[in-house]
Amino acid sequence: MAPALAWLTALMVVPCGLVLALAFFRRGIYGGIEYTFTLENFGLAFDPLYAGIFLNSARIAGTATLIAVVIGYAAAYAIAAAPRRLQPVFLFFAVLPFWSNYLIRTYAWIVLLNREGLLTQLLRWFGYHGEPPSLLYTEGAVITGLVYNYLPFVILACYAPLARLNPELGEASRDLGASAMTTFRRVTLPLTLPGIAAGAVFVFVLSIGNFVTPALLGGGRFQMIGNLVYDQFLTANDWPFGAALSMALIAIMMLLLTVQAMAAERASGRARTAEGDAADG
Amino acid sequence: MTAPRHLWKLHAFVLGAALASAAPAAAQSLVISNWDGYMAPDAMDAFKTATGVSGELVVHATNEEIMGKLIASGGKGYDVVFVSSPFAEVLNNLGLAEPIDHAKVPNLANLYPEATTLSYDSGNTFSVPYTWGTTGLCYRSDLVAPAPTSWNDLLAPSDAIKGKTTMLATDRWLLAAGQLAKGYSVNETDPAKMAEVKDLLISAKGTLLAYDDTTFYSKLVSGEAVLVQAWDGWCNYGIGENADIKYVIPKEGSDLWLDTMVVMKASENKDAAFQFINFMLDAKNHAWAAENILYKVPNKAAMDSLQATLAEQYPNMGMPVGELVKFELLRDVGESQRDYSRIVSEIKAAQ
Fold first, then answer.
1. Closest A-chain CA to B169
2. CA of A259, closest CA in chain B: separation in Å?
3. Of A199, B73, B129, B321, which one's alpha carbon is 20 to 30 angstroms from that of B262?
4. H and E: helices and strands count for chain B
5. In terms of domains, do B140 and B241 share one?
6. Number of folded domains in chain B?
7. What's the mean pLDDT in B297-317?
8. How far is A261 from B193, CA to CA, in rounded Å?
9. What residue in A sits closest to B87 (Cα-Cα)?
């Protein structure tokens, strides 16, 4: 354990710490760092403009998470219900997009959605001759890009508990008179909640910090927190403020991950109890 | 075992002495930082053939990127850098720029007289101009009627072209469109005036297709956009692909942007650096930029040597220098840069 801890400390904790320490200093007049201790960057991070950007990012990331979880869980459920020998094949197809680069997957949406893109050409082929729909560079396009890119994570995360689910529990529930819907709601869903939680946190954390998708699919018209941090470090040369924003983002993400870990602990505790009861019964 | 240990120390000493004496024999070598594709691909080889000095070209994608590196390292590791004029000003203010030794750069005589008296560096004391130009409106003359004449045609577009316009994403030019439309300076620092500019640009944002720095001319060619804010050289790339595309400077004016070459004070090969600048100012070498990147260069000898057909196909290449320097030069705005960044964040975050 000690070597792993040392590796993690030296190669992750220390570099992150060095960057985050910048948050306590001030930007020099021409973009360098002025080493005078100050807390003004944190005050600025809570300014209405930036807090608003943060909340907006959370909203977009939350919407993407919701859609991804619904689609991902349904897909994982279908895969887990498929014949055993076909499941690896379906999983392979679910993960196949990852074989290409993130940037290329995002660019593919630009090609599909732009006004002279493949979608418009498909509509024209079906006889639509009106004004081409303006789908690109909208918030919907950004959310679509985020959902598409992170869906495989949700599918894999939800598939694991679904595949491990003991089918006898479902049978027992129906023997006791519960409808399929009730079985799903009161047996399947609670037992697979850790997978949903893991997938949801994964999508949310990756989406909220994402700056590539809003920049490409949003046409620069949507400023998410990731874009803001990127701008501070690479355009405005205001490293201290960028570090303060990053610190705020990391703190919130760590909070979410802790809550998710605790929820997973409790849920797995309940699962063990439920399986124990089913085995006894 | 004392005998082998003594011998080991002797071996180490001899090896060290040999290495130390070998080091100073290495030839001079320059490190140049420039945008990708901004000079001829064989320029470094041609420079070596002409002067015997070898050079290494590193690329930077943006001014801010190279400025970050230079400020962090105090200019060490670079000999000549290509930066835009406001950033050359900053380098000079920080004491990182070496004064240009005019005696070592005789090709300075090739420059237009107007290029030697620019407000940010009159007399070319710390920088040498490489390319210059304007920012204006680039549009499809077959899809936009009547032809645009004002920045407000972009900022408050007619219903026919709403949703088919783009603006530049880089903060100075994004703001310049608003500043010029309101009749203010492109280096405006008055907070009240900048607030007005911000409101105008936020209302313009609702009509835009996107903010685009790099693919706006392809959008014009494909018809996805019909009217965009563009640098004159980039509009030429569109004109090259579709002759219906035209460039116009709005009646409120443009900014004068300038890319320059600066020698770093921390350079250890200053004479070679001046030789490099002299080499780039040679009429033939400098004309490469005009012919291949389709940017105007402030080099009279180079511009005079261009084919007449170039200015026929790309009208803005034939712009008289006297007209060009009438526009306001982009300058560093010092402390107000933070306010500029904040205003751009507000515009981009506005719903």
1. A220
2. 30
3. B321
4. 15, 10
5. yes
6. 2
7. 93
8. 51
9. A30
**Closest approach of A97 to chain B, Cα-based (Å):** 26
The answer to whether residues B46 and B190 belong to one domain is no
Each domain of chain A, given as residue ranges in start order, spans 48-280
ipTM of the complex, rounded to two decimals: 0.81
Query: pLDDT value at position B25?
Result: 40
Tell me, yes or no, whether B94 lies in a domain. Answer: yes
Distance CA B32, CA B105 (A): 17
Cα–Cα distance, B332 to B83 (Å, whole number): 12
A48-280: which CATH architecture?
Orthogonal Bundle (1.10)
Residues B211 and B345 in one domain: yes
Q: Are B335 and B293 contained in the same domain?
A: no
In a domain, B264, yes or no: yes
Question: B302 lies in a domain?
Answer: yes
Q: What secondary structure letter does DSSP report for B211?
A: E
Which helix (H) or strand (E) segment holds residue B87: the answer is: helix B85-93
Measure A44 CA to nearest chain B CA, in Å: 11
How far apart, in whole angstroms, are the C-alpha atoms of residue B165 and residue B174?
13
pLDDT tens-place string over residues A40-58: 888 888 888 888 999 999 9
Find the closest chain A residue to B65 by CA distance: A234
